[in-house]
Amino acid sequence: MNERQKLRYSRHILLKDIGETGQEKISQSCALVIGAGGLGSAALIYLASSGVGKITIVDDDAVEIHNLQRQVIHSTGRIGLSKAESARQTLYGINPTIDVKAITERMTEDSLPELVKNADVVLDCTDNFAIRTAINRVCMKEGIPLVSGAAVGFDGQVSVYDPRKEDCPCYACLYPEDMEFKDIKAAQIGVFAPAVGLIGVLQAAEALKILAGVGQTLSGSLLLLDALAMEWTKLKVDRNPACPVCSKRNTSKKPT
């Protein structure tokens, strides 16, 4: 890092658990963020401001006026613009020293592997069960840690599924792929704007700890938010030894 970068990230560097070494790891890392809506908005802003060197944003939607209540990375002037491109512009305004790539196509299980294997961490900020399961499958196969978040109404949840750890469950351990799952959209029941922000910020926090190699993550745990009562509940999640997804995990990549 040069002197200007050291000044920009000085408050991270002052943290003994991160320091210059941890910040250097963050600056040399790549985060793949799938979804630039409410969750992605909060997560992306903190990943960029914290200096993640390369950020790839995937979202095939365009900004609409009803998004602006919670998707704080976008603005009124960008209605109609691709969310991925809108997010890219905001991130460069926050931190022009990083590399941000916007992908405006919907990801499929065929196109995901190339992106995932080139990332150091993946953040699932989507709202679709089929896409979530596909992301989980690819992350397990490629051995890349996955930070998964969800929020609707006043409720939210976040967890880390880390295939580098033998005893860590995957998303399919908690939500089997063959289960009947009805996606609930914000357009159906509404969503409390700060709830998605809280979960997205937590996703960024977990991702940054993974990249810097510090602290304990939520791997093996599910953190639940009830924003109406402002209560947090942390549940232990065990790995399913018969899980057809993580039984084929790639464990060759070890935590730093």
Plain-language structure description:
The chain is of the alpha/beta class and 256 residues long. The chain has a single domain (3-248), classed as Rossmann fold, CATH 3.40.50. 36% of the residues lie in helices and 18% in strands. The chain has helices at residues 3-8, 10-13, 19-27, 38-49, 83-94, 112-117, 129-142, 171-174, 186-189, 193-212; strands at 30-34, 54-58, 99-103, 121-124, 146-152, 155-161, 221-226, 231-236. The protein has an eight-stranded mixed sheet, with helices on both faces. Strand 5 and strand 6 form a beta hairpin. The longest helix has 20 residues, at 193-212.
Summarize the structure.
By secondary structure, this protein is of the alpha/beta class.
Explain the layout of strands and helices.
Elements: H1 3-8, H2 10-13, H3 19-27, E1 30-34, H4 38-49, E2 54-58, H5 83-94, E3 99-103, H6 112-117, E4 121-124, H7 129-142, E5 146-152, E6 155-161, H8 171-174, H9 186-189, H10 193-212, E7 221-226, E8 231-236
Parallel strand pairs: 1-2, 1-4, 2-3, 4-5
Antiparallel strand pairs: 5-6, 6-7, 7-8
Helix pairs in contact: 4-5, 4-10
